[in-house]
Amino acid sequence: DIIGTAVSLDDLPLREDLRGRSPYGAPQLQVPVALNTNENPFPPPAALVDDVATATREAAASLHRYPDRDHVALRTALAEYLTRATGVPLATENLWAANGSNEVLQQLLQAFGGPGRLALGFEPSYSMHPILAAGTRTDWLPAPRRDDFSLDAAAAVDVVRERRPDLLFVTTPNNPTGQSIDLDELATIADAAPGIVVVDEAYVEFSSGPSACELLETHGHKLVVSRTMSKAFAFAGGRLGYLAAAPAVVDALMLVRLPYHLSALTQAAALAALRHADETLALVDTLSKERDRIAAGLDSMGYRVVPSTANFLLYGGFPRRFADAHAAWQAYLDEGVLIRDVGIPGHLRVTVGTPEENDRFLEVSAALR
Ligand code: PMP
């Protein structure tokens, strides 16, 4: 018997606003083809694995000491990478990292949200944004996207002017729908925003468009660009997210971060992984082409595919949407293919896998049509 099972969640003196809520949870199932959490399907190259092992071995010799609280070497390496990737000259002081971009976003809400404050996002979007708002007791206002899931910039400006959120979330490419927003539209929305504008660019490497980092020179007093090594960098298990912003934003996050939040092992491993950025990112192109191949395949079968600039696709069943998306999700799973029911009626989301995994997904899609 497990100690303590007589007590249930309802018996605990839990915060009232957390009662009845569900934790974030994509099912973690052992299946032949897992295409459900937008990971990179390609394991890290052997040279990267070796380098991470060597670097963490060296770091292990100093584990009796706390790590660099401000992770300066890592921020410097991230600034160099981001400067190279975007052409925007970013300094160490512009960068900040944490355990996944989820923690970066949580720190932003801790610093700029909180009781009596409002965060706004355009749904459907990343489901963690409202969950992180709830955890920090920030009010959450969902604003709509168009019926085709694209973002209507004029409508966005209107709702932002009217509701004046302390934090505005714009996810581009958007998860789970895949579309990106143009930088000039983003700038217009940011101009209307009275508070902090968080641009969540978790998937930006898979799009051919520019990064919102380009707006930092003009909008750095309010704009924050959040990024992650979980997707394009094939480093989801390493837990490393980061942001680019004005140095003052970094000063704000230092007020809420836990001391030594990034372990010495994480910092060493992430630095090693960054040294192999060119090799890892070389596969992004393959994945983008695979995405387009899956989209064309689904389209030719009569599925309705939402155009995507990310490493996943949202699509509806034959002829336009699934009558019962959850039943369709289960039918894929019965064939050993795990995709995602993101709760959008009539639609499912599939992550781009290896070419073999994608072939299998398309095969099952053809059979289920
Ligand atoms: N933002 C978006 C839009 C995401 O889809 C995800 C991962 N699903 C994240 C942030 C967080 O990823 P991580 O914490 O691994 O960086």
From TrEMBL:
Q: Does the keyword Transferase apply?
A: yes
Q: Name one Pfam family in it.
A: Aminotran_1_2
Its UniProt pathway annotation is: Amino-acid biosynthesis; L-histidine biosynthesis; L-histidine from 5-phospho-alpha-D-ribose 1-diphosphate: step 7/9
Q: What GO annotations for molecular function exist for this entry?
A: histidinol-phosphate transaminase activity
Arranged from A to Z, the UniProt key words for this protein are: Amino-acid biosynthesis, Aminotransferase, Histidine biosynthesis, Pyridoxal phosphate, Transferase
What cofactor is this protein dependent on?
A: pyridoxal 5'-phosphate
Q: Please give the residue positions where the record annotates the modification N6-(pyridoxal phosphate)lysine.
A: K231
SUPFAM superfamilies, sorted: PLP-dependent transferases
**Source organism, top-level taxon:** Bacteria
The family this protein is said to belong to: Belongs to the class-II pyridoxal-phosphate-dependent aminotransferase family. Histidinol-phosphate aminotransferase subfamily.
UniProt subunit comment: Homodimer.
What's this protein's name? Histidinol-phosphate aminotransferase
Organism source for this protein? Actinomycetospora endophytica
Q: Which gene encodes it?
A: hisC
